[in-house]
Amino acid sequence: MSDPATYSRRVITTLALVIAVVVTVLLPTMVTVHGYRKDVAELEMLSAILARVTEEVAARSAETRTGQDELLKQLLGTRVDAKGGSEYRYIEDGAGKRIVAVGTPPNSLLVVKRSASFGAGAKFSGRVVVERSQRHLIELAVIALLLGGTLGMGIYLALAHLPMRDMERAIDSLTEERARSRQMFAYARDGMLSFDDYLRIKDVNKAGEQLFGRDREALLGQPLQTLFDIAGSNALRDGHIWLETGSAFEVSARNADGSLVPVEVSIGRVGERKDVCRVAVIRNITERRDAESDLNLFVNYDSLTRLPNRDYFRELLSEALFRAQRRGGHVGLLFLDLARFKLVNDSLGYAVGDKLLCAVARRLQQTLGHAEWPGRGVSGLANKEALVSRLGGDEFALILEDLADPAGAEKVARQVIEAIGAPFEIEGHEITVGGSIGIACFPDHADFVGRLIRAADLAMYQARNLGQGMFHVYSPALEIGHQDRLDLEARLRRGLANEAFELHYQPVISMAADVVEGVEVLLRWQDGEDNLLLPPDFMDVLEDTGMIREVGDWVIRTACRQLRGWHDAGYAGLRLSVNVTQHQFNHPDLVQTVTAAIAESGIAPDCVELALSENTLSQSGERIMTTMQELRNLGVRLALDRFGTGLSCLASLQKLPLSALKVDLFFVHDLVESVSSRAIAQTVISLAHSLGLQTVAVGVENDNQRQILQAMGCDFYQGFLATPAMSARSCLAWIEQRGSHGQPKLHLVS
């Protein structure tokens, strides 16, 4: 087939030539025909007129022939064409003899001759003949031919070149567009192949060759379905979807080496009528699938352990309950809370803690992978990893499907506790952690996801109270204690909003001088008009809910303002000791809070002592050293409360920036009767003095205890022997009655 541009050019040129020739020929032809017809008509009319006149003349002068000839000659000569003898007129008788003639016979190739008879039946009859030369028509035809040729040439040029110019531009544009399309087809990043209605491949680009691992020649003519893994799709196998313009679907492309590549296929239609074909655009979506997988991992899985996260766990649990409801089985839910994890995290660092969590996750998966319970194997989840989820922190959840009865969950709980209790080897450290497990089962304990999770959580909380390595199965009785705790939490929040907390103060007495050296600040909660609660009744709820931070900040600020009031009243030597919980000490804003309270009240920093428990010290690790040093740099004194009841390392004690050790009331209480208590108390006091620290005995109830402690060298004491903790107003009255540093008048801060 010739090039479309050449073919179009040939057609237009031929058409222009035909039109030009027609115009060139038509003009002289029309002039000639028109002139000829005009002459013929004129000659016919003229000959008829002359014949009539001749007949009348002949009839009137029939006697004088000579006169007739002259008269007829004059008549014939009337209005003879003055074109140089181009017209010749004559009269001939019945025998054909010319009687009269006017003009010159035309000497031309083209002559028009017309005649008319006269005198029929008379003595004188004949005919009048008029001949006219058509030379002037030839001249006009030549002129018309020249004009027509000029016009035809103009028309030819106009038709042959002006349309061709636009058409060539259009053709060039179309050619360029086709070339671009071809280049786009050839060099597109996505694989592209064209195919006919029989699904035979007609063309393929470079990306398609690379995608399928075959060259173009090997792909041409091949059935389209052989290039894809279509075993699982009837629509693809039947071929119907391949012929639907605009259809798009995902499938796996089959490479020459047998590997499968996930692709997205879009079907389009190109061309019209006989040249129509279909094009498949094939995009490799491996990276997109990887991105979707990464996104799914990010959204649904814990980034550290790669276990399902809390949200995905709820979805998995919901699916498990749906299957159990449909089949009529049981689902066990185990909540695992690790013990001693915070100790590991704070003492060995977060990196070790993270690796420990990953090791626990793997061990849980291994344990559940080998665990057996009645009914297991009927269906189960898609993979064993889905059985274990991390809810956050050191809490894990285990989903057990196909339980024959709740007892199967208890069996698994024992196996898990045993597995978690075995030592872990992390970066050269042998770490032993335990756990507490709460158990709840569907449909025995709850009939939907939210209630089942709550039941397992309540059971876990109870197991934690029972001690490390224990598990507990949910029972309705747990709801009672839980409701009481929720009620306590609500009352605490109302108390915080209504300023129902108050401070009591217990004087600290010097053993040597028997004077008040300072006061210990103690928190009280006025829960109702006649119900004053001590910290053991509500402190754990404050810490669990996070309210301890707000309450603790209030305690420090209020105590500092009160001490400032006493200093302004003349008791400048008084100090105060504030107990700080582990939660407060681990908060990064503690130093800032203390600094602000001291600055607002205007007291000296060394008048403030923060007391932290030995348990706080043992579980806070390296971070506490930084906080303690910052407080000491500020000038605040630090005391270690309840020393001797924990398991603090004595080697690290000398590194701590402490000012005092407090002998716990557990040893003070048995000083008189118990030799071991006296030995421990003496050891604590001697150790403190050897480290340059002061000692304070807590809970001194009688004078015998005071005398023993004084003999041991204890510096200060506090307890019921002197006075119980009391309000600021009562403390003022007590100090004024007893006498202290400076003047007896004190300023109270409400």
TrEMBL record:
Residues 485-739 form the EAL domain. Keywords: Membrane, Transmembrane, Transmembrane helix. Residues 329-476 form the GGDEF domain. It comes from the Bacteria. The chain crosses the membrane at residues 12-36, 137-159. The keyword Membrane applies. Signal peptide: none annotated. NCBIfam families: GGDEF (TIGR00254), sensory_box (TIGR00229). This is PAS domain S-box-containing protein/diguanylate cyclase (GGDEF)-like protein. It comes from Sulfurisoma sediminicola.
